[in-house]
Amino acid sequence: MAIFDSRAMDYDQWYESKLGRFVDQVETDLAFSMFRPEKDMKVLDIGCGTGNFSIKLAKMGCTVVGVDLSDEMLDIAREKVKQEGLDIVFHNMDVYDLNFEANQFDAVFSMAAFEFIKEPAKAYKEMYRVLKSEGQLLIGTIHKNSSWGRLYMSKSFQEETVFKYADFKTLEEMEALDRKNLINSGECLFIPPDTPDEEVTMEKEQHLSNSERGGFICTLYKKEL
């Protein structure tokens, strides 16, 4: 997708900041507290971007296929994977039309991509289609009803970033995608985006979890037999 090609080169810089590293840590902790990768599990990473979670999954022993619409993002992902000495296959592919047979993957995983999906039910149906019976499908996305959601939806932020193209969801909306097969959901990133670096701590994150909505949410579904 062209809108992401333009930000591909500086995308990973966010994770070099203290707040960016913290955000990545709490989002990763939440995702892997719900979804437990197993060695040799075949995982499809939807909206893989520059390969952040594809690499994490591969290091856990999974066989990973990553798909994204940005060729620039995928080129960076391939270079990172090469430097890591990992074997991950990447494709330019649309989530609404995945070029895979049904029941191909042990798990489908998507982190920080669903924000840009305009037809979540259609995307979910296609992700579910390629999942094997009893396989798990995890989706992580920015929470609309949070301080982070309000920032990303603010006029000034949308004018300057790709989030002008986003379609944010609430936790309740994500759970409603498939209540029958929903097995878990959770929130993280209770620290607001304007928190000073010196206050970005796990202790503050845990304290705010008692009073704030998480800026990031995950939902986990299991495909029926």
Could you provide a short overview of the structure?
With 225 residues, the chain is of the alpha/beta class. Helices cover 36% and strands 21% of the residues.
Q: What do these coordinates show?
A:
The protein has a single domain (2-222), classed as Vaccinia Virus protein VP39 (Rossmann fold). The protein is globular and about 45 Å long. The chain contains ten helices and seven strands. Helix 4 links the parallel strand 1 (42-46) and strand 2. The protein is of the alpha/beta class and 225 residues long. It has helices spanning 2-5, 8-11, 18-34, 52-59, 71-84, 120-129, 147-153, 155-160, 171-175, 202-208; strands at residues 42-46, 63-68, 89-92, 105-111, 131-142, 182-188, 216-222. The N and C termini lie far apart (35 Å).
Q: Which sequence of SSEs, written as H and E, runs from N to C?
A: HHHEHEHEEHEHHHEHE
User: Which strand-content bin applies to the residues?
Assistant: 15-25%
CATH top level class name: Alpha Beta
Helix fraction, binned, reads 25-40%
Spatial strand order of the main sheet: 3-2-1-4-5-7-6
Q: Please state the second-level CATH architecture.
A: 3-Layer(aba) Sandwich
Mean pLDDT: 94
CATH superfamily: Vaccinia Virus protein VP39
Number of strands: 7
Class per helix and strand makeup: alpha/beta
Low-confidence segments: none
The Rg value, from CA coordinates, equals: 17 Å
Q: What best-fitting shape do the alpha-carbon axes yield?
A: globular
CATH fold description: Rossmann fold
Number of helices: 10
Structural domain count = 1
Q: Which sheet architecture does the biggest sheet show? A: 7 strands, mixed
Distance between the termini: 35 Å
